[in-house]
Amino acid sequence: MPLAPVPHPRISPRPGLVWIGFLLLLLCPDSSLAQASSDHQITVRVHDLHGENPIDRARVQIIRFPDQVAFDQFTDGSGNVHFGGLSSGSYIVRASAHGYRTGEIRVDFRRGEQEQVVDIPLARSEKESVGSREATVSKRILSIPDNALREFKRGEKLLNEKKNPRESISSFEHAIELYPKYSDAHFMMGMAHMQMDNSKAAEGAFRTAIAFDASRTDTYYPLAMLLFSQRRFSEEKELLFAARKADESDYRWPFELARCEAQQAHWNEALRYALDAAKQEKAAPKVHLLLSDIYSNSGRSKDAVSELELFVQLDPQNPYVARVQEVLPELRRRAASADAHEPK
Hints:
By secondary structure, the protein is α+β, with helices and mostly antiparallel strands. Among the domains are: 40-128, Sandwich (Immunoglobulin-like), CATH 2.60.40; 143-213, Serine Threonine Protein Phosphatase 5, Tetratricopeptide repeat, CATH 1.25.40. It has helices at residues 22-27, 130-142, 146-160, 165-178, 183-195, 199-212, 220-229, 233-246, 252-263, 267-279, 286-297, 301-314, 321-340, and strands at 40-48, 59-64, 68-74, 80-86, 89-96, 103-109, 115-122.
């Protein structure tokens, strides 16, 4: 029985073209592909790529495929951080720190595996001198009062380990009272508000965090997702342009710009940004799912097939591969039909 096209809830596909539906899946992390809850654990070590020195206060995010931030914590003085209470399945572990390029690694829990230890080396940014950068980072960390840092760590534990965002907000607020420019506390408070569906409060916290530390580009990402969910595309694009200017090597910014344009059926603009994302050294395989959707909606079934085949080749264990294999035969048939009707 052929698989029926999956329509997008907001963008109607052009007549006669297959709408694969991966863009919809990318917007809905809590899909039917979610795995059953379990108690898996990940220990992460973040260090300098060349010096092997541990990186203190690096932000580490555990991301459930494709875009849901499940955990968000900071490393200790040894460059380590531990996460527990994860479900089985696939995750991206992303690490970022001042003066370094963002790094990430894929983690898959197989049957019987309960714990994994991952190592993420970060390369230094080339935008400023090492001495100046390290001095700035050290000055920022040392300027945080001990009592503010204690409140922040308490909030982190309440949010990530105790799963209590409401109480964590109180701790982050206390940390901010003690140190108003505490950008990390503003950011984490925004994450807590997001978990409670307090969009307005989350947006305010994220914008304040960016105002105090515009160079930490990971702060832009959840705010961009919030604006996207509210269809505030002009504001989202402005934010993504700022993030891209701060870190041109991160594929997420052109990727999100492509999604933003695709939601408005601006297929040429979406394709341009998606191709930019695919060119980045550490672009995630999901870029090819997005490209396939864009090509499909632009009447380029053959290119859509190529992108899906490349996705399977790059990430054969991905939970979406089964869906890809269901769609490919119909998409190949349409591509062959289009070729047969082209003028010779």
